[in-house]
Design a protein that fits this description.
Layout (H helix, E strand, L loop, with lengths): L27 E8 L14 H9 L5 E2 L12 E2 L5 E6 L5 H18 E8 L4 H10 L7 E5 L14 H8 L6 E6 L6 H10 L2 E4 H11 L2 H14 L6 E6 L21 H12 L4 E7 L11 H20 L1 H4 L1
Helix pairs in contact: 1-9, 2-3, 3-4, 6-7, 7-8, 8-9
Amino acid sequence: MTDAPLSRDPLWPRAGGWPATTPDGSRADLAMLGVPAWRTSLSPTGAHATPAAVRDALRRYSPALIDGPGTAADAGPVDLCELDVVDLGDVDEPDGPDGEARTRAAVTSALAQARALVALGGDNSLTVATALGAWGDDLATAGLVTLDAHYDLRDGVSNGSPVRRLVEAGLDPTRVVQIGIADFANSAAYARRAADLGITVVTVDELRRRLYRHGPGALADVAREALAVAGGAGGPVHLDVDVDVCDRSVAPGCPASVPGGLAAWELRALVREVARDERVRSVDVAEVDATADAPDGRTVRLAALCVLEVLAGLALRRGPAAV
């Protein structure tokens, strides 16, 4: 990624650079927390460098939606600067039992300060502690939506096991929805495990078929259907955004991304649609290795845009009158 200085324009504010607290001490709309997990990754990774890289990349973008909610007559730009965002820094050494305990505590604390949380990974192992910290005493009614090429049902403790670990911790697997599962990125044994558990799976091929038949609006339909399952018990929903669900051409900094995955716009649209639901209280953005990215930083930039899509979803919850 180029180190050229960014231009300054008082009429073009930049995203990021958020304070650690709101100016008046009120509850923020969104808290950002770095969770640089990496030590149990199945692939060599420098994912612990990613939260800092995403923070830098956020400064390249404007916090503005050009088309707001509502009809064509009343839609217009939405300034996301109107939402309060706090950056709570990084969890120190989030790997291992002690690190996961620190992460859970940090997430719980963050959600006492903000209405929603986005956790910056780090590899996908962060999903366990982040989700459990967000759900707290609501685990019995909680739900999970993953945007991921992989089932993450492996045995053991790694970035390939968070869904299995959450189920073993008490998450009802019938309230797990996995979108983007890909051929040649999973084993038949884990596919059977997902089916036996009753997990709802939308493969990348099924998603494409729906897009071809119904156009881009199919993504909103998939998001709504996923939330109906994951949020069916009325509890909080965690969204796991594993960027390796995307095609390797747009996510070369994800060790496990493959050719044929989602387009960048498809991932962004899904994140926004899921995040606009009130039941979604926590999101993680995972599996980006900033040290292995393309020279133009495209994977890190996509991760940063996913953070802004979460913020966009929060803004759209308010409806046309509020924004």
